[in-house]
Amino acid sequence: MYTHEIVSKVKSLLSEGSSKGTRVSAWEAIQAELVQAGLAWTAQVPPDFVGVHPSNRSHLGVGGSEAHWHGAQVLQAGFSWAKAADATAIEAPPPPHDNEAVAANAKYVSLSDGLIPPLSQMKLLSIGGGHTNVFLRSVKAGTRSAVDKLADASGKLNLEHLAVGRPAFREAVEHGLKWFVLHWQAPEVWPELVHFAQSALNTVARNEQGELEVMLELHRLWRLDVESHREPNWQKIQETACLSMPPCAQYIGSLVAFVKANSGGVDGTLLDELSSFQKMFACSESGATRRMGSEFFHKLSGLTFGPGEKYPYIMNACIAANLIAPKVIDGICRLLGSPQLQLLTNKATKPKVKEAEELMVNVREVCSRLNVPQAIKTKVVGKVDVRCILLLCNKLKEVEKITLETIADVAQMFVKDLADNGFDHDLIKAVISQPESPQSSCGPAQVADIPETVAQMKSMAYQATKLGLGVGAVVVLKQDTDASRIFTVKAISDVEGVVLASRGHPDAKVPADTYLTTYKVLKGKAESVLQHLEVGIPHQSEAWGWDIVRGILGFAVRGEFMKHKSCLESVQLFVNPASTKATVAVKKGELIIVAASARFDTKPSSPSAVNCGSYAIVEGCKPTVVYVLPHFIQPIAKNGEPNKMPFVSPFWHTRCVAEAKQANMELSWYHVTVEGIVCNVPFMINKRDVKPDEELILHFVQSMHPKGAAPARKMHPKDAAPARKKARR
Predict the structure, then answer these.
(1) Which stretches within 163-292 are classed as H helix?
(2) pTM strictly above 0.70
(3) Where in the chain are the domains?
(4) What CATH class does 459-521 carry?
(5) Cα 386 vs. chain centroid, distance in angstroms?
(6) Left (φ > 0), alpha (ψ -120 to 50) or beta: where does 574 sit?
(7) What pLDDT, on a 0 to 100 scale, did the predictor assign at position 399?
(8) d(CA 511, CA 461)
């Protein structure tokens, strides 16, 4: 079915739709092509047979509470088959190709806290219409309701209760949506097809895209560049993410800034945590469109805590807190605003912020060491994150009717929450009291444009190196205005701290947690011994050696050219096409034309470059092959104006062939001694008699090189004459 014609046609439509931004029309054209090729069809499939594609909404997927709120909106407006016509899915791949899809859908069920029922079987994977289908699944299974007004007396979704006066909705619950289905191998043939289709569908119903989904898309596009070994182009990434016209397009720059600073590296661990948190906790009457707005993200992405100080979990927790905010105005979460975020950077609040970040790190470590299941971990860790932020911003009582005075109180609540989920209270306490040693290695500092991992954000050594305060840096105390004592960073470690060396004083050791706040890079001059003086001595200079070799070769070539310049009177040059012809009869071995050129290089950058042998450019190092390059500049330029520096050399105007029998000229070398160095000067000589008006044709291939020369050796003056004589013979 996947013929070359259909593969090429769909690929062309994908490329055109992406480059021009015409994704909706391109998607319609792609649908028509796939249907005609038998790679797509329509089918009505029961909701409990349809899962969610792992790549749905840039891997954000579907949460139970938001699906229920979406269902409430559908019922309020009235279920319509026309509105559900965009339902699109991929045929579920056969085992074992379905492993990723099975794992992803199991994760959505576990994170929903009972709001999403398990699949009866998996026939399709939705990429459009997923929220509606999950709601239909929930109604069919009779799960508990996340929306009070939809619940029956027992608090559950009841089809008989909800389908009164809604026959179309009853049919959808019992028999499913009418899906546009793509063959399961289509995403393998066209890897960008799933995201392209979702973007086209989101453009039609663009109000469904929230900021977190767009941030996941930004990170996905960046990761594609990294994995394809391309330099990430954030401007292009930003423009591509905005092609579906999300509501946050006007402040996309703030989302880009957050993703670059706080996504959690290539794996996007921090964004993945937010995605799981949203599935479990976030809900509102606006469902998936719950947004935080431009003011919030502009302020959040600009928060700074001091040089090299990063609090990634604090930053994430700000978004998490707003996602569960009870205060929503015009679809914008208003729990945390600029004044609350500003509190996090105040000097008085900083110790509590640091304590909260440490707790957030510790609870994740505890969950990892106790092998807490993903759903429970998301729940208990999410509560810690939100409670810490709400406590720091004086907003806790607006969300939870509990009294917590300190970060330590939040830690106690974490222990209780884990115990309530079946974990032994004493075991939790034991794990907390024996924290693992922190790791000091986070890999080398990287380009600022590349999102950092959590480990890199938390590493003082990494941040110090990035700020120029790493090993070898010259630093002074920040309060030392006259820089009376200068230090050199000798060693740096997250565990052991920083070792500073100062002339005339013993080494000083500075704790890791105070180094960045108390020291700065010395901006003035610091006297120090010039290191590695044995390197860079003039006779070891490659640049100087190359100039000498080039000069000696140029001298040798020019000398030989001048000896044989009379031969130029026996030839004439032609153009269009370029050729060299004899003007008189010349006997064998009497027509000698030297490869006159002022251009030499260590690389044969032209097919006509001639090998001149090897030369020791730097004393004591391995000899380097040097080539003489073509040098031919006509007296008159193509525009009819005289060239400023004409250089007419018949050697470079002569036609070359690779077959010796086709040529009347052959390549040879003179071995000329200049300053004790044997220089190989290339020239061509007629190997037979040449008639008047006969074209000169040189036998030459680039692998040819001088034979019999002693490359890169000094030659005693008494040896020079015999060598030259032998060459001329």
Answers:
(1) 167-175, 186-189, 193-204, 211-227, 234-241, 252-262, 269-280
(2) no
(3) 4-204, 260-423, 459-521, 538-728
(4) mainly beta
(5) 31
(6) beta
(7) 84
(8) 11
